[in-house]
Amino acid sequence: MTVHFHLNVSPEACPALVLNADFRPLSYYPLSLWSWQDSTKAVFMDRVNIVSEYDRVVRSPTFEMRLPSVVSLKTYIKPSRDPAFTRFNVFLRDRFTCQYCGTRDELTFDHVIPRSKGGTTTWENVVAACSACNLRKADRLPREAHMWPSVEPFRPSVSDLHQNGRLFPPNYLHESWLDYLYWDSELEP
Fold this sequence. Notes:
This protein is α+β, with helices and mostly antiparallel strands and 189 residues long. The protein has 5 helices and 7 strands. It has a 5-stranded mixed beta sheet with strand order 1-4-5-2-3. It has a two-stranded antiparallel sheet with strand order 6-7. The chain is elongated. The N and C termini lie far apart (45 Å).
C-alpha cells in the first residue's frame, strides 16, 4: 500500500510518544519517540494501542488514518535493571555538569583515579569533566591535583537516570504527551 502524507508540515514534525503497557514512557532521556512511519507500522502490526492522535492524517487510495501522537505497547517490556555504561549515561548521571568546576561546556569524562595509576573505566571511577578541568587534572590523583569531584561517582539505577532525565525536558513537548510525562518545572537543570 502506498501512503501519501497530506500535511503542511513535514512528517517528522509528528512523532509518537511511546509508552510501555503500564503507560509510562519507555525512556525519558532520550524521550521514547517513534517516527510517524514506525508508529503507523506498529499499529498495523497490532503491537500498540493508539492512546492519542494528531489532527493530521495519512492517506492511501483506499485508506485514511489519523497519525498517532501517543501509543502504548500491548506487551509490557520489563525495564533494564542496570543501565549501560556509556559516555551519555555518565553525563546524565552527573546532570551534564563538570564534577570539578560546575560548568556545562565542552564535557568529556575523567578517570578519578587515572588509568595510568591503575584506575578502571567503571561507574565508580569516571565523572563528567569539562575539557579545561580534565586537562588541568591530567593523569594525577585527586589529592595530587587538589581536585575532587563534587559528588562521589556511583553506579546509577535506571530510576536515577530517569529522574535526572526529567530535569532536561526536550525542546518540544506535544500537548497530548503531557499527561504521561512528569517534568518538574520547579527544577532547573
